[in-house]
Request: fold
Amino acid sequence: MSTQVIRPACNLSGAVRPPGDKSISHRYGMLGALASGRSHLANYSTGADCASTLACMAALGAKIERRDDVVEIEGAGLRGLRPPAAPLDAGNSGSTIRMLAGILAGQPFASEIGGDASLSRRPMRRVVEPLQQMGAAIAAAEGGLPPLRFAPAPSGLSGIEYRLPVASAQVKTAVLFAGLFARGATAVIEPQPTRDHTEIALRQCGARISVQRGRVELAAAPGELRPVDLTIPGDPSSAAFFLCAAAMFPEATLVIQGVSVNPRRAVLLDVLRRMGARIGIVEIAETAGELVGTLSAAGPARGRLQGTSIAGAETVALIDEIPVLAVLATACEGGLHVADAAELRVKESDRIAAIAENLRRMGARCEERPDGLIVPGPQQLHAAAVDSRGDHRIAMAFAIAGLVADGPVEIAGADCAAISYPEFYSTLARITD
Ligand code: S3P
Reply:
């Protein structure tokens, strides 16, 4: 377990090109393996989670070659996966185990998928239940936890209409992916909009998807999926650390290049503007149904950042950004109130507890709620030793806290940033003075 020391910064400047989006990379890693032909994925995420997906798909029979951030996948075809020789390993990746569950449920062979200690504590009933409703023979370990075990579905899978009990793009994806192997149409109704990369990716692969007022429907399983050739947009949840950092420096001249500005992932830009940060969209383009842009970011020209509240649909859209927003809150007049975020307790760590504990270690006040937190502001952060709890977003959020503390911040378990952003600390060092 490595430790990183982050020292206070005077300013932020330069250009950052974040790694390929983690969510989009997982989806094309899986769909490319199911396609009939060769997919070419440029700017595939360099994070360990997306490597776990590729390793699982290779174990299931796809031929995968990787040169730096370019991944080529020779798909096995929709009916061409083969039984893995050993249990599949999703590592730390909730997206891998949950989304792949939809695919494994539809296979004519038995399989098992598990992961590391953190993943082994994460709830799986949310995918097990809808897949069982579709006819899958799937079982979780005690308490609805990983590993998941699959047998061939005795009567095959049938499409269902499933109303998500929690707004989760991973669960939506598991059900739609199972729909690729089901009789009839498969529909998912979302209580609140979640990221729509699955809908976009399935369409790119030639599947028929319709979306109407929170109801996503995959028409009867396609005969085959088309391979794709695309450049994956940069990850906005990785860019978020630098955007929030820049928002704390009025003189910042930071540019973020090639980042996804998919409207369902770009809510942070609205929130930062509402807080008074100067966020510019320099250019915007469309690639394979996804929007990608170049952003500029700086703190307010005059006065302080203003605090805000986040609840409901905004919380869903910002779920991965809340750790760094909680750090930013300490620089805001009025702080931050986050509600409806109980999901944060079952991420790679209990993120509500992790944020509160680390803010307290830095001498800041923070009130924990069952479904959120209240961070008063403004408050000076102090030099401290903090703990990532093995959670990449906690490690990176507290690295940003280190930039505005009154002395060095030592992050224990800092190397877990590599789950989504291996280049994070070197990039941070390059753009800070
Ligand atoms: C993801 C969905 C979110 C998010 C995770 C990635 C995805 O999880 O937190 O990092 O790629 O679909 P939930 O679906 O559990 O909300």
